[in-house]
Amino acid sequence: MSAFWGMDPAQVRAHAERLRTASGQVEAVTARLGAAVDGTAWTGADAEQFRHRWQNGAAQHLQTLSTELLALGDGACGEAEQQDAASSPQGRGSDGAGAEGAAGEEHRGTRAPADGSGAGARGGYLHEDNPWIPDWLEGPAEDLLSAFAGTASEAIGQGFDTGFDMLEDGLDRFGVSTAGLAQFQRDASHFGEILGDWATGERVPTIAELGAAGLLAAGSGGVGMWEAVTGQDTALLDDRPGGIVDSVRTEPVPAQGAQTLQDLIVQNDALRMDNPGGPLEHGQIGIQEVHRTGGGDPAYIVQVPPTEGAAFSDVPGAYGEQGNSRDWGSNLRLVAGQHPAAMDDVRAAMEAAGVPAGADVLLVGHSQGGIVANHLSADPTFNSSSGDSGTYNVTHAFSVGSPVQTVVPAQGSTQSVNVNHGGGFGADGISGDLIPALDLGGAQADGGTLSAPHRHEVTLPGYPVPSAHPVTILQSNHDSMGLQGEATGGYAGSVGRATAGDPTLSSLERDLTGRYLGEGTTVVGSQVVTVGRGAP
Fold it and tell me: Residue 329 CB: number of other CB atoms within 10 A?
C-alpha cells in the first residue's frame, strides 16, 4: 500500500505571499541603506571606495536576493494555479492558460506587471491581502468575483466587437468611410481592457491613465462619426505605427563625452528640431556608444527629445497629422498606457544604429521624451536581460519635466529618476512646472498611489516668474535649457546646481560615472537617426 500527498494550493499561496513580502522587505531595507550611504557627509577617497563597494557589491546582491524571492513567490503561485486547474471539475488545463497567454501577447500596453512582479507595483484585489477577511474565505470569494467579472467583461467586449464589425460591414456596402470608426474601436477596446483588469482584480489603474484613455475613446468616437457623416478623412488622433527610418547620420566623436547629469540634458536639447512651431516631417533620436577603459561590453546612451512640431492649438497638425511622432496626440496616448508611434521610433532608431540585443542602455528624455523612455523601460518586450532580439537591459531611465509617476520599470534592476520643478508663490513671483504633475502623482482609482523602490521623483526649486500668465511661467520652468539656450537655465541649470547636494541625483551620477559618463569612459561612436511615421 502506498500513500501520496498532493499539493495544498492554499498553503502554497500562503508561502508565496510570505516570499513576496520578504522580497518587498529586502527592497525597502536596500532603499533605506542606500539613502543612508548616499546622504552621509563623508568625503574623500575612502568614502568613494566605500560607496563604490556598496553600489557594486552589497546593493546588487540585495537586489538579486529580492528578485529571486519574488520569482520564487510567483513560481509558487503559478504552481498553485496549475494545481487548481488540474483538480477543477471543469478540467481547466493548458487550453485555458494558452488562451490567457495569447490575449496577453496582443495587449501592447506599457504598464508594469499586474501583480507587481519585479516592480513593486500595487496590484488589484487578487494580489492584495484583506486583513478583515479570513484567508479561507477571501481567496475563493475573490476568485469567484474575478471569474464573474472576467466573463462579463469578455461578453461585453465580444458584443462590442461584433456590433462594430456589423456596423462597418454595412457602412462599407454604402461606400461610407469607416477608418475613423476602426480607430474608435481600438481606443474603446483599450479603455475596456483597463476597466476589465480593474474589475477582475488584476491591477488598479491610475486616475491619469483612466482619464486619458476615456478621453481618447470619446475623441476617436467623435472623429469616426464626423468622417462617416461627411465622407472626409482626417488625421486627427491617427495612431498609425512609426519606426520609418529616413537616415542615420554619423556625428563626429566628441573630444569629451558627458561628464555630468547636466551634460546629458544639454545633449538631449541639441537634438531638438529647429522649426517655427509648424508640422515636422521627421524627428531625431541620438545614440552614443560608450566604452569603459577597464574593458567589457559597450554601453549605449539613447536620447529622446520632447514634443516637437505643430503647436498645441494646431488641429489636426499636433494630433496625428505630422510625420514627427512626438506630437501632442502621442502625449495623450502615452498617459493612457498605449504604445504609440513615438515608441516605435526609438526601437527602430536603436536597431538602425546597430545597438545589439541585451546591451546595457541608459535612456534620457525631456518632457514627452522622458515619458517615451519610461514607458519603454516598463515594457518587458523591450527592457529585459534575456538577450532576446529587440530587447535591451535598461539599467537607468533619466528624465526631466515628465509626468511618469504612473509608470514602473519592468525590471527591478532598472533605476528610474525624474526631475521636476516644484511650484510655489514667493516675493519674486510664481514658480513651478505643471507638466510633470499631469500624472497626479501616480494616484490610483482606489485611493492608493502607484510606487516602487526603483522609481524616484526629485523636486527642485523652480524659476519664480513675476507674472501670473501660465504660458510665461511654464516656459521658464519646463524648458530643458534657458530661454536663450544657456546651460545654466532650465532643467540643465537646476540639475547642475542640485546634483552635489541632492542624495538621489548624486547617487545617480555616481552610478553612471565610469559606465556611461565621466572618468573611465570614452564615446567611440555617435549617431543621429532621423525617424518618423510617414504621411497619414
Answer: 29
* Conformation bin of residue 156: beta by default, left when phi > 0, alpha when psi is -120 to 50: alpha
What is the C-alpha to C-alpha distance for residues 352 and 223, in angstroms, rounded to an integer?
35
- The residue type found at 3 is A
Question: Of 485, 489, 473, nearest to 434 (Cα)?
Answer: 473
Q: Which of 200, 213, 274, 202 is nearest to 239 (CA)?
A: 213
| Distance of alpha carbon 28 from alpha carbon 454, whole angstroms | 10
> Residues 409, 413, 415, CA angle at the centre, nearest 5°?
60
415-422 and 455-461 strand pairing: parallel
Which cell goes with 97? 492558460
Burial group, residue 364, by CB count within 10 angstroms (0-12, 13-18, 19+): buried
DSSP E strands, 293-414: 299-304, 360-366, 393-400
Lowest-confidence range among 65-69, 92-96, 170-174? 92-96
Cβ–Cβ contacts within 10 Å for residue 498, how many?
A: 18
Residue 368 one-letter amino acid? Q
- How far are the Cα atoms of 225, 321, 359 from residue 181, in angstroms, in the given order? 7, 17, 41
Is-contact 275 240, C-beta < 8 A? Answer: no
Burial class of residue 510 in the structure, from the number of CB atoms within 10 Å of its CB (0-12 exposed, 13-18 middle, 19+ buried): middle
pLDDT at 315 over 50: yes
Which CA distances in Å does 193 have to 147, 150, 224? 15, 10, 20
The residue type of 395 is: T
The DSSP output letter for 175 is T
Q: Which amino acid is at 223?
A: V
Burial class (CB in 10 A: 0-12, 13-18, 19+), 283: buried
Q: Which three cell numbers stand for residue 434?
A: 505643471
Sign of CA dihedral 331, 443, 452, 387: negative
Distance, in Å, from the CA atom of 436 to the CA atom of 366, rounded to the nearest integer, reads 10
What's the rounded mean pLDDT across residues 517-532?
96
Sequence letter at residue 191: F
Q: Which three cell numbers stand for residue 450?
A: 502607484
Comparing C-alpha atoms, which of 110, 149, 52, 533 is closest to residue 329?
533
Which of the 8 DSSP states describes residue 357? T
- Whole-angstrom CA distances from 198 to 89, 141, 159, 161 are 27, 16, 20, 20
Mean pLDDT of 136-163: 67
Query: Of 159, 150, 146, 166, whose CA–CA distance to 188 is shortest?
Result: 159
Q: Quick one: DSSP state of residue 440?
A: G
Q: Which residues contact 419 (CB under 8 A, 6 or more apart)?
A: 399, 400, 401, 458, 459, 460, 491, 494, 495, 505
3-class SS of residue 84: helix
Which residues, 6+ apart, have CB-to-CB distance to 367 below 8 Å?
306, 307, 400, 401, 402, 435, 478, 480
Cell of 334: 502615452
Q: What percent of the chain has a predicted confidence (pLDDT) above 90? A: 51
Long-range contacts of 195-198 (CB under 8 A, 24+ apart): 195/153, 196/149, 196/150, 196/153, 196/154, 196/157, 197/114, 197/124, 198/124, 198/445
Q: How far is CA 404 from CA 5, 116, 131, 142, 459, in A?
A: 48, 17, 31, 31, 13
